[in-house]
Specification:
By secondary structure, the chain is α/β, with parallel strands linked by helices. It has helices spanning about 25-40, 85-105, 140-150, 205-215, and strands at about 1-10, 15-20, 45-55, 60-70, 75-80, 125-135, 135-140, 155-160, 165-170, 175-180, 195, 200-205, 220-225, 230-235, 240-245. The strands form three sheets. The chain has a five-stranded mixed beta sheet, with helices on one face. Helix 1 packs parallel to helix 2. Pfam families: Ribosom_S30AE_C.
Length: about 250
């Protein structure tokens, strides 16, 4: 069961909170106070949506997802915490993201100690969230910046250099890696990231699910056998799976 709360602060910040019934109101209030304290220092006003839900595969685990929008910055963060002891981690991550946007600092470092990989072996789990978007046509380094801004583990987009679906994701040795469907052209922005040299697997949706769950993968970028488009299948904190796919036909096909 989901519980919705809404409030506003003295500096004009409008706050909406959605929490799972297993997450106490006291925990939600502490989280609101922590992030409001950060935003109060910047005096941006704006609107904040905070969602708190239990992590089904971790005792006392909570995942906090925060979306903040103001005339100055737009921030999305997602961070797992252990019970109420990790509330400050939400505020710290928000502060870091805002400062990086305001100062133009480089992408966050990887590995990220606040965001352990959500990957574990399990029986085949269902896809409980499907996201269909008109994918943005981006240069790979811009896609990496979008991934960082919205605190994604991986980001699906149309690669401006090849015209194909592609993903960027956090991985060594440079922190960001690019995976393309089949065209393994060298990057025009050399040194920004590494490129996965292996063409993307062509799979059915069910085969992709089996691969993620059998091998404990946090996500899988694959080409769907039905239409030849790229898909991003990922493990959710709730334990089930999510799928991201594009709506429009990619250019250059």
């Amino acid at each position: 069961m989901k519980i919705h709360d809404c409030c506003s602060t003295a500096d004009g910040l409008v706050v909406g909170v959605q929490r799972h019934e297993a997450v106490s109101q006291h925990c939600a209030q502490r989280a609101v106070e922590a992030v409001s304290g950060v935003l109060g220092r910047y005096r941006f006003g704006g609107s904040l949506r905070l969602r708190l839900q239990r992590i089904m595969f971790a005792d006392d685990g909570i995942v906090a997802q925060l979306n903040y929008r103001s005339p100055r910055v737009t921030v999305r963060i997602q961070v797992p915490i252990v019970a109420e002891d990790g509330i400050e981690a939400i505020a710290d991550r928000l502060d870091c993201h805002i400062r990086r946007q305001l100062t133009g600092r480089p992408l966050r470092s990887w590995p990220d100690p606040q965001r352990p990989v959500v990957g574990f072996v399990s029986e085949c789990r269902p896809i409980t969230r499907r996201k269909r978007f008109h994918l943005m046509v981006l240069e790979p380094h811009i896609a990496a910046a979008v991934m960082d801004t919205f605190d994604f583990d991986a980001h699906l987009f149309i690669d401006a250099e090849t015209g194909q679906d592609a993903v960027v994701y956090w991985a060594g040795p440079l922190g960001v890696r690019l995976a393309r469907q089949s065209k393994m052209a060298p990057l025009s922005t050399a040194g920004m990231m590494t490129v996965n040299p292996i063409p993307t697997l062509c799979l059915s949706e069910q085969a992709a699910i089996q691969r993620v769950c059998m091998y404990g993968l946090p996500f899988l970028f694959f080409t769907d056998v039905r239409d030849g488009r790229g898909r991003l299948l990922y493990r959710r904190y709730a334990g089930d799976l999510g799928l991201v796919q594009g709506r429009a036909t990619a250019p250059g096909r």
